[in-house]
Amino acid sequence: MTVTIVVAIGRNGVIGRDGDLPWPRTGDLAQFKALTMGHPMVMGRATFESIGRPLPGRTSIVLTRDPQWTADGVEVAADLPSALALAAKLDDDVFIIGGSQVYATAIEAGVVDRMVVTQVDLSPEGDAWFPDVDWSQWHEGDRQAYDGYDIVTYDRAAS
To answer: Per residue in 68-123, pLDDT tens?
Structure first.
């Protein structure tokens, strides 16, 4: 199974503000759709609620500590290992799409194989940040430059 983080990050590390993206929508949403289509996506409850619905063509696996929480059309998991086990039954490619706590947990656990990072050329105010990453453990693969942002793929360096 390959676990990929998909994230958009401002120059200052900000990934969100008030449950939304802290910048105008960019073209990276089309790439996000193409990348994740047909695959399970793992996200925190707040990220799911900010999206507002399950995204078509993908299985949404929502992490929550609330055993009573449910939403139509989603799978629920109590922790990241449970979410990844559920995702592994569905597909070999799994995408973690937020939020900051889920990213931090996945990186700290060492389960992430790849990161697809939209590097937004802004430093907005925010209340959610991407966790600190030891970038020496990652190597840059592909980079696509666009107006106002780059999409960069990082693969975990061989140990």
So the answer is: 999 999 999 999 999 999 999 999 999 999 999 999 999 999 999 999 999 999 99
Whether the Cβ atoms of residue 22 and residue 130 lie closer than 8 Å to each other? no
Alpha-carbon distance 157 to 17, whole Å? 31
CA distances from 38 to 19, 43, 59, 75, 131 (A): 25, 16, 8, 15, 27
Q: What is the pTM of this model?
A: 0.96
Q: Which of 6, 1, 3, 4 is nearest to 99 (CA)?
A: 6
The amino acid sitting at 3 is V
Q: What are the tokens at 55?
A: 């995204």
pLDDT at 159: 67
Q: Alpha-carbon distance 140 to 122, whole Å?
A: 21
Query: What are the residues whose beta carbons fall under 8 Å from the beta carbon of 28, sequence distance 6 or more?
Result: 8, 118, 146, 149, 151
Q: How much is the average pLDDT of 12-24?
A: 95
